[in-house]
Amino acid sequence: MKQKRLVIRTIILLVMFIAIGYTFYNHFSEERGLVDQGDIAPNFAVEDLDGNYLELADLQGKGVYVNFWATWCSYCRDKMEYLTEYYTVYQEKGVEIVSVNFNERAGIVERHMERYNYNFPLYLDEQRLVSNAYGVVSLPTSFLIDENGVVIERAVGGKSETQVVAALEKLIPSN
Amino acid sequence: MEKVKCDCGHVNPYGTYLCESCGKPLLDDNQSLADMRYEGVARRSQTYSKSVVDKVWNFFSSVKVGIWIIVLILLASMLGTIFPQEMYIPAGERASTYYEQEYGVLGKLYYQLGLHTMYSSWWYMLLIASLGISLVICSLDRVVPLHRALKTQRVTRHKGFLSRQKLFSKTEKMEEPEKSIEKAEKVLKEKHYRIFKEDGNILAEKGRFARWGPYVNHVGLIIFLIGAMLRFFPEMYIDEHIWVREGEQVVIRGTDGEYFLRNDEFIVELYDEEDERFRESFERTGGNPVVKTFQTSATLLKRINNEGPIGLGTEFEEIMQYDIRVNDPLTFDGYSLYQVDYKLNELSEFTFTLQRNEDSSEEDLSDIQFTVDLFNPELVYEFENGYRVEIFQYFPNFYINDQKEPDTLNRIPDNPRIIFEVFTPEMNPDTDRGELSLVGVQVNEALNGDNNYRIRMIDVDMNHVTALTVRRDRTLPILIVGGVIFMIGLVQGSYWYHRRIWLQNRDGEIWVAGHTNKNWHGLKKDFETITKNTAIPMPLDQTDDWNLIEEVEGVKGKDDSSTSK
Amino acid sequence: MTAVQVSSNFLLLAFFLYLAATIFFAVSITGKRFKNKKGEEKNKSGLLGYISAILAIVASLLYFIFRWIASGHAPVSNMFEYTTFLGICMAIAFAIIYPMYRNNFLGLFTMPIVMLIIAYASMFPRDIQPLIPALQSYWLKIHVITVALGQGILAIGFAAGLLYLIRVIDFSKASKKVRWLEFILFSILSTIAYILLGIGFGAANYEAEFNYINEKGIEAQMVYTMPPLISPHEGERIGEGFDPFLATPAIIRSNDLNTVIWSILGGLILYFGLRLLFRKPIGGAIQPLLKAVNPQTVDELSYRAIAIGFPVFTLGGLIFAMIWAQIAWTRFWGWDPKEVWALITFLFYAAYLHLRLSRGWHGEKSAWLCVIGFALIMFNLIFVNLVIAGLHSYA
């Protein structure tokens, strides 16, 4: 009888403490992105300024640096400057850079391209379909996707040159 | 720890005040009246507090602790209303500077103590959580024994039980007490009492279910708190915000790219300033226009091809059209879209024409008219007479950045500047440099020397923008169930009263006693009816204390000035 | 006559009927001793008082209906309308509870409080205001009417609690209790002073204007409706008049503070005037009238009022409020000050019920809690609406 009472009390208390603990954990732990580390990167299809079609799935086997940016975002420009510098070097090592514009129209992106002369293609996402699916809320946001299509990192905010190089280094396919 | 066996044969748990069956007082506490709370049952056994689990359990089982938690939540909640919470400070203000700037030192302290986000702080949430635990344990610890006691109560009660009731009296030995009791039984039946009989004794009971009211409402509260807790679990709650320009179609955030919304038209309607009903009010407030309606006429669309990649090739299907207003959200598939904000007259299009600076010109340029979409500008405008205007650079929200270069803050044309390049028919756009001019609202500057041509703005088009909140709250059904049960319990416990009347024949004497959890006034009235119809006397209220009147009379004649301080 | 005028006239009529009820109830308790010769109570004043109260409620409801017709929406959407309705609800609550206990003392305490609330309400602008979009919902009526009714019933608990305290507290000795009770009575007198001063200066069309620098550092103008005792931040009087003694910092609305100071001064004059007249604490002066009150009955009465009012208040102030908030503001709960204070009121009365049922707080302790509870309701009505800005401050 006494033993039974202790067991019941322990169970009830445990259930309540676990539920409350989990609630606190969810509330106070850093929020996970819609697409985040360990997820399979959702496949998307985009076109660049010249109308060249790209599908993420076609890049299987390569490391992919997906970068969401906008013309008005100065951190994005800094980052893309570094990417321009290392683009060809890492392309040879099997790393692709996919720069997806956030919610701007072709004309505006075209003038931006002329002004800053990036050497990689700029893809459009005029209706924000791709950035929405990736849960992009601030710029720049990058997703590091390995050769198997798995996200290995979600990087939000401005990055230094060394950080960009380190990220590209991580993406080199192992085989 | 041993159980206590009463004289009547019933075995009671340790800590019982009044025998669950016959009501005999088991603990001699020298009280003149029986403590009838929870029927005198053993509600928590302090003696079991040997293990940690029991100690925690007993802590939360105390009503005293429960009341302290309520009081602490109450006091803490007050603190949070001294200054506005962070979510209510004006948009764009930073909490780190706002509070100090607006409320001085106290504001700074408020911010530093974290009171500006107090209601989601760990300690406030912990208080609410303890309230939940207290509710569960207090209720469990009381409802079970109470239920047992009310179920096992006997009709014939111990003399000590009866005489220690608040309402009690007994008669002298009388003739045919059975008859009086029988008559009383009839009266009580008419008053809808349930009658239990044993050896010529009566227990009349009414409204016992009111006793469960508190526990029912606690269950409701617990369900409600569980619902509130689930809010923090993934997938349960979505709170997103979208801005939609007139004519624009956007993906509705939080819907996994499944739903889209087009803003067909946004309307703001004002109250008629001539309206006679509100004339005085308009006069008093200085005639500021009062908004009558905000409304977004929207079209809801759905993605139809769910296979294949995201992005290019997405096809839509119109689902419905709806006028979203304040107090009238658009609800679909568990989501709701609420009208929350708007921005009127955002620039959307500029229309320009070209002029020669010296009007001596024989050329007619009036055919040259072009419109620039400020969100989606064409880059090149060619005209039949050979003129060509190109957009050299475009800054929707112009400013000069840290590197002293022209730049844009964002994509919204709140302060648009366009650098145009004008090519005359004689020039080759691929090799020549045309005249450059920077054009904006009230701005028109030549950038490379004196210009022969001037681009003049002749028309401006504007758009309204609507702001909608996207909400999905899967906890609502749980909260509704909790709220309903809570209200039922509250009403059950507040608007019905548990009343019991004992009439016992003790060797020719009639012993009368009554108990109720509230509303003694009502119970006394029931006794009055019995007294009127039978020889049974009105029981005395053993707590009634009329001596107070004499005390009050004593006030007279005293030195009044001494009582003032 | 327009519907607005008709409604105003009915409110005025109601006010005098409440006054009549007060007088009848007063006669019923003072006259009892003399008219009790045959051992039977021949005193009909109590009944007359109750009838007057019922008629007053009818007149009040006619005010309510005509104003509804005039404005096209339920007249509970600004301070005047809500506060008036709260007074009416208190009267309705009295009409419900009186038949249970037939306690004329309760009438003597309740009716003046109802009058005071309605008179206080009429100090606010009385014009009909158009409804902003957030208020255009049938939940406005459901939510606000239920809340007012709940608060009205809880206010009966206050009246009974006050009655209990004046009945049992020993005024012959100076004590904390006496001081607090006198403070409550002083607060009531200050409210009366505020109303009288407001009516007086209003009738004289008194206005004093100032140029001043507001909290944002901008020059602005401020109008005083009572003679300025304090001036605004760097205030300069426009036109003739004496200069105030003190200046206030910019964040304080000095004209409102000025009114508060006048009310407190008025309250002090009334209070000490009465003390001088009675030569004892005001409570002590009232006490002999209440000899016939059975404290136990009044204690139970105050508890019953709260037990009846608490579910109604919870339904209106929390549950209906949440439903409407979910529809109008997208979330059922947003920690808006008014919401928080409704929760505080709920928690307070929940604590009261637990203290009474589980910890045996009867009598005096319970009566004090009833008084504090009413203070919370008034704080939520006046202070939160007028001082702590939030989503609810439309008035």
UniProtKB/TrEMBL annotation, chain A:
The chain crosses the membrane at residues 7-25. Keywords: Cytochrome c-type biogenesis, Disulfide bond, Membrane, Redox-active center, Signal-anchor, Transmembrane, Transmembrane helix. The keyword Disulfide bond applies. Residues 35-173 form the Thioredoxin domain. It comes from the Bacteria. InterPro entries: AhpC/TSA, Thioredoxin_domain, Thioredoxin_ResA/DsbE_sf. Pfam families: AhpC-TSA. The keyword Membrane applies. Signal peptide: none annotated. CDD domains: TlpA_like_family. PANTHER family: THIOL:DISULFIDE INTERCHANGE PROTEIN DSBE. NCBIfam families: PRK03147.1 (NF002854). This is Thiol-disulfide oxidoreductase ResA. It comes from Evansella tamaricis. The lineage of its organism: Bacteria, Bacillati, Bacillota, Bacilli, Bacillales. The gene is resA.
Automatic annotation (TrEMBL), chain B:
InterPro entries: Cyt_c_bgen_Ccs1/CcsB/ResB, ResB-like_domain. It comes from the Bacteria. The chain crosses the membrane at residues 65-83, 122-144, 215-233, 476-497. Keywords: Cytochrome c-type biogenesis, Membrane, Transmembrane, Transmembrane helix. It holds the Pfam family ResB. It is a multi-pass membrane protein. Residues 63-528 form the ResB-like domain. It is found in: Membrane. This is Cytochrome c biogenesis protein ResB.
From TrEMBL, chain C:
It comes from Evansella tamaricis. The lineage of its organism: Bacteria, Bacillati, Bacillota, Bacilli, Bacillales. Residues 77-199, 296-392 form the Cytochrome c assembly protein domain. Pfam families: Cytochrom_C_asm (PF01578). The keyword Amino-acid biosynthesis does not apply. InterPro entries: Cyt_c_assembly, Cyt_c_biogenesis_CcsA, Cyt_c_biogenesis_CcsA/CcmC. Keywords: Cytochrome c-type biogenesis, Membrane, Transmembrane, Transmembrane helix. It comes from the Bacteria. It is a multi-pass membrane protein. The chain crosses the membrane at residues 6-27, 47-70, 82-98, 105-124, 144-166, 178-204, 260-278, 305-327, 339-355, 367-391. This is C-type cytochrome biogenesis protein CcsB. Its main location: membrane. It is found in: Membrane.
